[in-house]
Design brief:
By secondary structure, the protein is mostly helical. The protein is 38% helix and 0% strand. It is built from 5 helices and no strands. Helix 2 (48-61) crosses helix 3. The N and C termini lie far apart (65 Å).
């Protein structure tokens, strides 16, 4: 099937790419740092779309960065891009764009929200059970 790309959960559609490509942080040279090479020399950077597909592959499959298939590039390079883009707020920006798009298409029920109680620590639980639940029923001080 040469020429045809199979779409998986981590494959970026052309429509999605067009919507987010301008949000990708541009890498700037640090003016305080002294570089050996002038701009444009050295190895060409990995294309952003390829790096993003690699990031989505790892996040979707749960594999380790070093186990990333070679078709997505070096796992360490993709991980480095992930860290840079995370720090720059890229993923939050595209999440917001996605929410706005979904709200336009389907509508989000903003008036109805819920919170799962198991995600919040019980503030008074310490008194009846002790600090560590495995300490219940043991002799001695439980503090």
């Amino acid at each position: 099937m040469r020429g045809k790309k199979s779409y998986q959960a981590w494959t970026i559609s052309d429509e999605f790419w067009e919507a987010i490509k301008d949000e990708i942080p541009k890498k700037e040279r640090d003016p305080e740092k002294k570089y050996k090479n002038t701009p444009g020399q050295g190895r060409k950077p990995m294309p952003a779309r390829k790096a993003l597909e690699g990031i989505f592959y790892v996040l979707r499959t749960g594999c380790q960065w070093k186990a990333l298939p070679r078709e997505y590039g070096s796992g360490s390079t993709v991980h480095r891009r992930f860290q840079e883009w995370l720090a720059a707020g890229f993923f939050e920006k595209i999440w917001k764009k996605g929410l706005e798009r979904y709200d336009d298409l389907e509508g989000i029920g903003w008036e109805w929200q819920s919170l799962d109680g198991c995600m919040v620590k019980a503030p008074l639980a310490l008194e009846p059970v002790g600090k560590n639940p495995t300490d219940r029923g043991k002799n001695g001080d439980k503090t």
